[in-house]
Specification:
Elements: E1 3-7, E2 10-13, E3 18-25, E4 33-39, E5 46-51, E6 58-60, E7 68-73, E8 78-83, E9 92-99, E10 108-109, E11 113-118
Parallel strand pairs: 2-11
Antiparallel strand pairs: 1-3, 3-8, 4-5, 4-9, 5-6, 7-8, 9-10, 9-11
């Protein structure tokens, strides 16, 4: 298991940018696929983006494709989500999650960071 702590959320105007960071602890961090999810008020949690252990393969939800970029630095035990051209509908709590190699579920989650986009 890894422990995850997100940071970087805040209030931003539509069209603006934010960089979310996720600090991980755990000696096998580099073997995990990492992901970002979000949950808006009254809605279910949804997938945003993921990146494989090597960083060589990324997946994005259609709603963020072309605007958000996920990246990782295994040497620093960090995962990032660069969010550009933010829209009010991006308002949500954003969670960092880890999927251990060989498992299908994301088994480790952070506490979340609030992102609010004003119109």
């Amino acid at each position: 298991q890894v422990q995850l702590v997100e940071s970087g959320g805040g209030l931003v105007q539509a069209g603006g940018s934010l960089l979310l960071s996720c600090a991980a602890s755990g000696r096998t961090f580099s073997s995990y696929t990492m992901g970002w999810f979000r949950q808006a008020p009254g809605k279910e949690r949804e997938f945003v983006a993921s990146i494989t252990w090597s960083g060589g393969f990324t997946i994005y939800a259609d709603s963020v494709k072309g605007r958000f970029t996920i990246s990782r630095d295994n040497a620093k035990y960090m995962v990032y989500l660069q969010m550009n051209s933010l829209k009010p509908e991006d308002t949500a709590i954003y969670y960092c999650a880890a999927q251990q190699r060989g498992y299908t579920d994301f088994g480790s989650w952070g506490q979340g960071t609030q992102v609010t986009v004003s119109s």
